[in-house]
Amino acid sequence: MSAGQLPRWVDYGLMPLLNLAAAFLVSGLVVLLIGENPLEAVEILIWGSLGWNEGIGFTLFYATNFIFTGLAVAVAFHASLFNIGGEGQAYVGGLGVAIACLALDRFVPWWVTLPFAVLGAAAAGAAWAFVPAVLQAKRGSHVVITTIMFNFIAASLMVYLLVNVMGKEGSMQPETRTFEAGGRLPLLQDVIPGLDFGTAPLNLSLIIALLASLAVWVLIWRTKLGYEIRTFGASPTAAVYAGISPVRITIITMMISGGLAGMMAINEIMGSQHRLLIEFVSGYGFVGIAVALMGRAHPVGILFASILFGMLYQGGAELAFEKPSITRDMIVVIQGLVILFAGALEHMFRPALIRIFSFARTPATEAA
Amino acid sequence: MFEMIILILDSTVRLSTPLLLACLAGLYSERAGIFDIGLEGKMLGAAFAAGAGAAVTGSAWLGLLCGIAVSIALALVHGFASITNRGNQIVSGVAINFLAMGLTALLGQDWFRQGGQTPPLPTEARFTSLNWPFAETLRDVPIIGGLYSELLSGHNLLVYVAFLMVPFTWWVLFRTRFGLRLRAVGENPAAVDTAGISVTWLRYRAVICTGILCGVAGAYLSTAQSASFIKDMTAGRGFIALAALIFAKWRPVPAMFACLLFGFLDAVAIRLQGQELPGIGEVPVQFFQALPYILTVVLLAGFIGRAIPPKAGGTAYVKERT
């Protein structure tokens, strides 16, 4: 079952596609089960997400969230760490964004607030990953378990803060006041002339997400730290022999990962909601796991996977609108199936593929 | 004051029951070396199946069977991914949580059209309270009467099942051949394999045990504690059970105490909502909600004794290298 038995294009192209096809096949069966036509559903889904300007805008807006949470999981993957706490880190990241926006929005234009908001989001997310990271590095407590626990602690903390500390005065809603213009990112269509995404909240965060993808690529494959992260991920013992400190790498990697997850909040809070509210993360952190798995922890792959999941979100909303019996929960089902087939069952087709390709190759080698 | 303590303890028992069942469920799987963060999903799937089954057939027992069947099916998916295909156990658990969350809401809406709920169950289709003999007559006896008629008597069957599962699980794990092998396969699967016992089959059996108990836990939620399935009704209980499992260091009797503790925190939080504590003031509900997780993290950090997981946990067994 080791790598190298298959051509690279099969490993990185054909196999993920097969896994995805399996996931969609089962999703189709679910649609059949509730008495709708799967082909029609696919048509609505694709048209709803890519067929019109506003749909594309929403697809890319959702994709922006997935890029951040997907990158977060991917960076940790390279160090063989499983950061399942993107959900909590993004949630607390919202706190960082909100503090920056609430403090500055009445005094300065948005482009002055933005760096502080980015910094706040990244710092808050990184801080939320710091404790699990230290416990993993120094105490050996499994980072998966501690980050799960921190997701729940974050949820309680944020509800407390929004209800008792940051809530809007004279309102029972657990949310902060709405940011003024200085705390709002401009829409992409207002910045780049000629674009029109209707009412879709697609904003400058997409550019930030693309820059973050580039930065992650440079970090992992073009810097000394990235080399150390990958070495540590491939073999912790070898890394120690090479003089790489496991404690340092674990903590730094987890904090970068948490920071990226936290930056998701820029898109949601500063870009779209313009206020901090409860449960704005709503699963994006967990789906980041699927995005990173499908994208094989590479920024380019993550970009494609994010767009795919963005399509699912937007197309699924259209689907729920057109076919009331297929509720938005269908998206959750499809996500679950994609995580299952592209993640947990990723090697299911490998033995069969190895047989096919070694069969195809054997006569050729004999002839030579 | 005494009345209030009894009432809090009484609701502690009720709130601990699903935690305890799920926690013991996780115990079988994790002791066999299969990490399971999909307890939540299995419970949710079972709660839906039990609620739907009981509503359609009018029998709580058939509902329970439906719940167990669905939970075992999800457990087998987890087994197929992590044992047969050697996939990542964490990822598989996340997938199962997503699947259960989506499918229960989707199918619930399609089948019953009540906003994702199952139809409310009549009393005869639920597990109702069993009153012990003399519970009513003894009620007025000071102290013992309260303890007997409120705390011991008057729970539904599944509560007693949950607490009886504790000694039973202890007996299975530590006094039977199956239990010895199950623990061995979680610590050193190669040794079990060398002894000529199938690691795969043993782990599958452990995962099925997990499925059965999660099924009971789910059925408890929808057919005993409440009278219907409600969307996302597990509300993180599967993860609290997981925390309790770690808190108990993967042992059955401490698991019971951990679940009772977490259930107690929940009961106190409900009781104290909006009330002032003398000397402290109002304690936010969220603090009690977060406390189980905080305690587990502190434990994991090694400040209250170390929690050491089964050695082979989380890794698939590879019989031979290719």
UniProtKB/TrEMBL annotation, chain A:
Chief site of localization: membrane
GO cellular component: plasma membrane
Subcellular location: Cell membrane
Keywords, sorted A to Z: Cell membrane, Membrane, Transmembrane, Transmembrane helix
GO molecular function per UniProt: transmembrane transporter activity
Membrane topology: Multi-pass membrane protein
InterPro entries in the record: ABC_transp_permease (IPR001851)
Organism superkingdom: Bacteria
Any one Pfam family match given in the protein's UniProt record, by short name: BPD_transp_2
First and last residue of the signal peptide: none
Keyword Transmembrane listed: yes
Regions that span the bilayer: 12-35, 55-78, 90-108, 114-135, 142-163, 202-220, 250-269, 276-294, 300-321, 330-349
Protein name: ABC transporter permease
Taxonomic lineage of the native organism: Bacteria, Pseudomonadati, Pseudomonadota, Alphaproteobacteria, Hyphomicrobiales
TrEMBL record, chain B:
The keyword Ubl conjugation belongs to this UniProt entry's keyword annotation: no
Transmembrane segments: 47-77, 89-108, 157-174, 204-223, 229-248, 255-274, 286-304
Topological relation to the membrane, as annotated: Multi-pass membrane protein
InterPro entries recorded: ABC_transp_permease (IPR001851)
This protein's UniProt keywords: Cell membrane, Membrane, Transmembrane, Transmembrane helix
UniProt-listed CDD domains: TM_PBP1_transp_TpRbsC_like (cd06580)
Key word Transmembrane present: yes
Subcellular location: Cell membrane
Pfam families to which the protein is assigned, alphabetical: BPD_transp_2 (PF02653)
Highest taxon, organism lineage: Bacteria
GO cellular component: plasma membrane
Any GO molecular function: transmembrane transporter activity
Name the record gives this protein: ABC transporter permease
Annotated organism of origin: Stappia sediminis
Lineage: Bacteria, Pseudomonadati, Pseudomonadota, Alphaproteobacteria, Hyphomicrobiales
